[in-house]
Specification:
Length: 298
């Protein structure tokens, strides 16, 4: 009589565009599968809101793999292989670790042990799907910018403007000026142009009880930003009625799994004038740019 297989069940969802309830669904389907197989569920591990292209930063996955070192289970089970990984290198690495400890990799969808060939083929497809999603998302955001709308999240000084197209779908990227926050923006520009440091400006705003971006306390770095990269309050061209998108490209460093930004060539930038977004006049903007140049030269 064969001993009952001990199973570790792993579930993951990646972004805020996926319903966190998908974790519950994955676990429910996995538990039903384990029951049908007559196996024993030894433990469950979860990664919520974590990309399938990461490895070291997935704490649930790392904990599950760590248990393999002590012979805690016989089967590693997930719903589908894209829940395990969307990276070819990481998929192969996970399978090697499991095979070294004589652990089988199964999926609920396939209802069978996954072979190295199947894993390799599906990992290539999953990675390609991820690249296609990234491409479509980036190009869609470019289109939004080219039409004078804001791709991405809410910037301090603005609020979402709700409008709908002819089919009743919300129009993405519409913004209107938040008058209270706009007044704070103008005050920041004026104080900096008159010689106050970003750190001192932040301290003054916090002392006055003015909420910063996303309701957090003000930081000097958020005001100063990086001029060449267009980051920070003092460098945001939306405040002079100009949308600039695709200035930076982001890549994940394979050694650290952290995103690293690199500036795209100027011809790849999407620049659109949107006068309705203007908060700061040209004269004040130029005063700030002049002081930034003077500070760099000093």
């Amino acid at each position: 009589m064969h001993a009952t297989k001990r199973v570790v069940l792993y579930a993951r969802y990646s972004t805020d565009q996926q319903n966190p309830a998908s974790i519950e669904t994955q676990l429910d389907l996995g538990k039903e599968f384990v029951l049908r197989q007559g196996w024993h569920l030894a433990d469950t591990f979860v990664d919520a809101g974590v990309s399938g292209s990461s490895f070291e930063t997935r704490h649930g996955l790392q904990a599950a793999l760590a248990r393999s070192n002590i012979g805690a289970y016989d089967v590693f089970l997930c719903l589908t292989l894209d829940r395990l990984s969307r990276d070819l290198e990481h998929s192969a690495r996970i399978l090697k670790i499991l095979q070294f400890h004589n652990i089988e990799l199964w999926t609920v969808h396939g209802a069978a042990s996954v072979s190295p060939m199947e894993l390799g083929l599906r990992a290539v497809l999953n990675q390609e799907v991820l690249e296609q999603v990234r491409y479509r998302t980036r190009e869609g955001m470019k289109t939004v910018a080219k039409h004078g709308r804001v791709p991405g999240g809410i910037c301090y000084g603005y609020r979402v403007r709700r409008e709908f197209d002819d089919s009743g779908e919300p129009v993405r990227g519409l913004r209107s000026i938040d008058t209270d926050e706009a007044a704070t923006i103008v005050w920041i520009f004026e104080q900096y142009a008159d010689g106050m440091s970003p750190v001192r400006i932040a301290e003054e705003l916090n002392a006055r009880g003015v909420s910063g971006p996303r309701g957090r306390p003000w930081q000097g770095t958020a005001i100063r930003g990086h001029r060449n990269r267009g980051s920070g309050i003092l460098n945001n061209q939306a405040y002079i009625g100009r949308i600039v998108f695709n200035r930076l490209a982001y890549r994940k460093n394979p050694a650290t799994e952290r995103r690293v930004s690199r500036e795209n060539p100027a011809e790849h930038h999407v620049v659109q004038e949107v006068p309705s977004l203007r908060i700061v006049d040209d004269a004040l903007w130029q005063r700030v740019k002049t002081r930034q140049e003077d500070w760099r030269a000093s």
